Description:
The structure is a single chain. By secondary structure, the chain is mostly helical. The protein has a domain at 1-100. The protein has 15 helices and no strands. The protein is globular, with a radius of gyration of 19 Å. The protein starts with a helix and ends in a 10-residue tail after the last helix. The mean pLDDT is 93.
Amino acid sequence: MSDAELGAARALFVVGAYDRLGRLMPLLLTGAEHGVRTGPAGAARAAEVWVLAAQLAVKQGRTPAAGAYAGLAGAAARRSGDALVLAASARAAATPLRRTGRTREALVLLQEAHAHLTVSSRPAAAALDAAGMVALTAAYTAAQAHLPVIARDFADNAEQTALRIAHSPHTADGPRELSAGQCVLYRIGIERHLGDVDGALAHARRLDPGQLLTAERRARAATDTARALLDVGDMASAFAQLRLVELAAPGEARRPSVRALATRIAADRPGLPGLAAYTRRTAPDTSRPAW
């Protein structure tokens, strides 16, 4: 498995091409199983594959599989000794842990990863970027655990890190995940989980989707906004956001969790114009077996 193959697989993920990525995944997983035993570099690459597998399984609603892949990623990341890979594996583990009621365990993993990335007084740009993303994931995790002080402290930390990166002259050496837009996106979900739906919607209004560099992120923004709108009973506006999900990444609109939002809208407003057609278009393809 080459870096180019792994990069191509990641590119499919960020555009929401989950069916195509699923067809490639068995080959990638076989490569990871062989590569993890070849030394630190092979272990790092294997961990990245298993992180991607965990992320894809989350998108497909396959929580047990996501947890299993995240566990493999974590073990390979520790073998690699690479703090960036360890951070990615911690973030991959956070979602299945949250979904299985182990939110506190997820938070501990993320706090440890963040500490490793920030131990240096002058961390490299890549470490700052990873630390900011870990902080956002930790903030979202803490919000789901109803820990507002920890959630907002981590979110503030991520915003400060994003500003530090934006004003540094030495960070133009590659694409970064962390940005002001990414921080606003996470604030939507954080405030919603903390019970401040008005605050969540205020962040949604602040967010310029053009600040988000990938289709997957733009779809996530629309999904989180739809959830907040559903919380205040605005079914028509929530459906408008689901249309934006489909526009950004059709594969996102077919996710089980996103289809569940459409089902909620249909239960309340079955005659909403365009909803029946949307539901038909976003029906999952059940003819393909899971990878």
